[in-house]
Amino acid sequence: MWVEARRSSVRQPRALRHPPPSANTCEVDPKLAAPLPFSEWLPRKNYTRAYFRPRLVSSETDFHTMEEIRKPVLPPMIQMERGMVVSPNNEQKDFVCPEIIDVDVAADDDVEETSKLLFGLATTVDRLDRLLPSLLYTYGNTKAGLLVLVPESDDDLEKQETYFRNRGLDLTLKASPLDFTARYFGMVEAFSEHIRKHRPHTTWVGFSDDDTFFFSLPTIAKELKLFDEKKRHYIGSLSEASWQVDTFGHIAFGGAGVLVSKPLLDVLNDKYDECQSWGEQPGDQKLGQCIQRFGDTPLTLWPSLFQMDMTDPVDGVYESGRRIESMHHWNSWYTKDVVKMTAVSAAAGRKSVLRRWIFDQEETVDKETGESIRHFWVMTNGYSLVKYTYGPNVADDAINFDAMEKTWPEDPRGFEGRLGPLRPAEDEGVAKDRWLLHDAFVVGDNVHQFYVREEDEGHSLIEIVWLGPQGGGGGGLSDHYIRGTYQQ
Fold first, then answer.
1. Residue 318 — left, alpha, or beta (φ > 0 → left; ψ -120 to 50 → alpha)?
2. Which CATH number fits the domain that encloses residue 166?
3. Which of 104, 178, 351, 480 is a good FRET partner for 111, with 20 to 30 A between their CA atoms?
4. Where are the stretches annotated Disordered (predicted)?
5. What is the CA angle 389-391-392, rounded to 5?
6. What's the confidence (pLDDT) of residue 24?
7. Which pLDDT score is estimated for 182?
8. Residues 370 and 422 in one domain
9. How far is residue 50's CA from residue 356's CA, in Å, rounded to a whole number?
10. Higher pLDDT, 330 or 455
11. What is the DSSP-derived secondary structure letter of residue 413?
């Protein structure tokens, strides 16, 4: 679909790309500087900025894995000196209002159903504190409960619990004498006791790791409504790596998140002592074995839960356009700041995160050879901006964007069973320039994303401003910038 669009979507002449400048016609305030961290303010850079305005539509709306934007998006790069001073190397032209790109995004789901969810972690208080921002994104501002088993110590658990509750988590700390591996399965007994004493309305429990990141618990809760909560259910996903499945079995892998209905939890609790005594295997494996032995409940696969059993770089997963509802190993096997990634949700909602848009599709023809070069951009919201360049004689469908790009080093054959056919990271005749999210700031109702690329010829920064409910306000350009060259 996007290929046909690219053939017919050539940029308009510059004179037609923006309305002529006039007083008081800009939709965004052009006098506010970009909220750059000092470390980014210091270096020279090539810089450009674009504005997006989300139009919230029904939370039930489904989108294509790649949506097309037909209007021009990115202005040409401007050379900036230290302090965001326009370099004299730029041509001096008149300022024109930045164009705002309107895009449809699905509204967030209602949090009410999350009151039926109780999640459990086996970790330490120190790790909880270190991971607090990600936990607040996942569990904060929901009605889900969080039960955490920590090692026995002389610490004041009540005081520590108050610390987390005051920061926005409905969290209960419980000391456990079990070692780490046994504590994961120990959640079975802890869940049952906690539900009996404090949360009798709980219908689902979730086993996860402290670095399991859920993009939207309200969406998880809504999708669970498709299941009869009065019956036994065991829901999760396999590892993406076939050798992990061969080693640990056909189980729900714990890092991706495991969902168990209350009736099945009751069965597990009845058999808890026997199953816990089986050995020192990983907790998710013991959980799966106990269900297989006593639960009479097959595993229901939920492929949007990602165990992420591959090593860096994992760009291809994030940029795949797939529905990703959980993510594991983001701060251990590789380092991705998922909190910065999801900052855009403050303006555009949780369902805008990792959405893909294709835009600025151009074709230029060499006057001497008659050969055509094609360029286009793909934005994976909150992760990257990638500029693709197709050389002469490269077919329009050279890249299958429905296939996940295999960017990690392991043998691709071990992942195709779970992820489907993979496409190579390199294609003959195709060049890719990738700007990765470096930072994100919330300013009033707006979110400013900064995507960075280090190049041989310099440092390059693209700012994407997502306008919040008021549709404008912060995030304009400095007076010096206006007097310089912010134009097309």
1. alpha
2. 3.90.550.50
3. 104
4. 1-26
5. 150
6. 53
7. 93
8. yes
9. 16
10. 330
11. G
